[in-house]
Amino acid sequence: MALKRATSLPVIGFGRISSSAGEALLAAGEADLVGMARQLIADPETVNKVASGRGDLVRLCISCNDGCIYQVGQEKGVRCVHNPGAGQERRRSERLGPGRQYSVRWGING
């Protein structure tokens, strides 16, 4: 709260903030906005799930930094150990096109 009193500028909280901690910061007036970069890579639907009361479905970032921070530091595409689709959105949508679907089978009949 000290930072909010010291400035008239918007205050953004970031850095390993969980969705529940982010909600608490906003409710207490300690921040105007909460940044969740790694969390949104792990689960891009985090905000929608929490807003709809389904925070229990959020796929949490485990802060391994292997696929996001390390990869980007090596000038490679972002990826995530919890979200295999991270960084693949453009390639997948161009490959599949609108309305196309595919099925992956596994096992004895697959």
Uncertain runs are: none
The portion of residues assigned to helices is 25-40%
Q: What share of the residues does DSSP label as strand, in percent?
A: under 5%
Query: How is the main sheet built?
Result: 2 strands, parallel
> Biggest sheet, strands in spatial order?
1-2
Oligomeric state of the chains present here:
single chain
Shape: globular
Mean pLDDT: 82
Radius of gyration, rounded? 18 Å
Q: Helices and strands, in N-to-C order?
A: HEHEHHHH
Strand count = 2
Tally of alpha and pi helices: 6
Task: Describe the structure in brief.
The chain has six helices and two strands. The chain has 110 residues and is mostly helical. Strands 1-2 form a two-stranded parallel sheet.
Write the layout of secondary structure elements.
Blueprint: H1 2-6, E1 12-13, H2 19-27, E2 33-34, H3 37-42, H4 46-51, H5 66-73, H6 89-96
Parallel strand pairs: 1-2
